[in-house]
Write a structure and sequence with these properties.
It is a single chain. By secondary structure, the protein is mainly β. The chain is about 5% helix and about 15% strand. The chain is built from two helices and ten strands. It is elongated, with a radius of gyration of 18 Å.
């Protein structure tokens, strides 16, 4: 029988010892517990499909994490991510942290379908984002992006991109090559890049 461990909002301050007795756990919720660190032995949980570490005070996480479905790291104090072997991860949320640079570790998560990276301090995206070829939804609201790399045009499965609240000046013309792009959100952007108008002309829904 699948093990689902839920310690949501119990203000534990640490991962309870009983967690390690359930090495076959498929879901582990440790959100809103005042966690400041995560033990290396989190890697003992090899069957996790969902790990929720949101709403804590983590400044780092171990690279031993193994999860195949959903990883929630939002609302922490992270500024970097370690190298992690998570090629099957489908959903990652690192919103509301302290990132100023896009972690290269994310580029190895080639199975991602949705990436939430809102409310950080990103000034640019790396070319390696092109490796996320399964990505359908990219949320970048409230960062410091002035443009995106040409490599964004290689995300052939991308359906929606949220760019709200960024100081955008330009967008790469390669975005016009995205065959499945359906929705672009540029609300709270002072100057709407020309590429957005071109996308709108071809039937893409643009929020502005």
């Amino acid at each position: 029988m699948a093990q689902h461990l839920n310690y949501w909002k119990q203000q534990l301050g640490r991962v309870p010892d009983e967690v390690w007795e359930h090495s076959d756990a498929e879901t582990l919720v440790l959100a809103d517990n005042g966690l400041t660190e995560l033990p290396l032995r989190i890697g003992e949980l090899q069957n996790l499909r969902m790990l929720d570490l949101g709403h804590n005070a983590l400044t780092s996480i171990p690279g031993t994490i193994r999860v195949t479905g959903f990883l929630y790291l939002h609302d922490n104090q992270l500024s970097s991510l370690p190298v992690m072997d998570l090629p099957q991860l489908r959903y990652l949320n690192v919103s509301e942290n302290r990132f100023t640079e896009f972690p290269n570790a994310i580029c190895s998560m080639t199975g991602l379908i949705e990436l939430r990276f809102t409310d950080n301090q990103l000034q640019s995206l790396p070319d390696c984002i092109a490796s996320l070829r399964q990505l359908r939804a990219l949320h970048l609201r409230n960062n410091r992006l002035r443009t995106l790399p040409d490599a964004i045009g290689q995300l052939r499965e991308l359906r929606q991109i949220d760019l709200r609240g960024n100081p955008l000046e330009t967008l790469p013309r390669t975005m016009l090559d995205l065959p499945r792009l359906e929705k672009v959100d540029v609300r709270w952007v002072d100057a709407i890049p020309e590429v957005v108008a071109r996308l709108e002309e071809r039937g893409c829904i643009v929020y502005r």
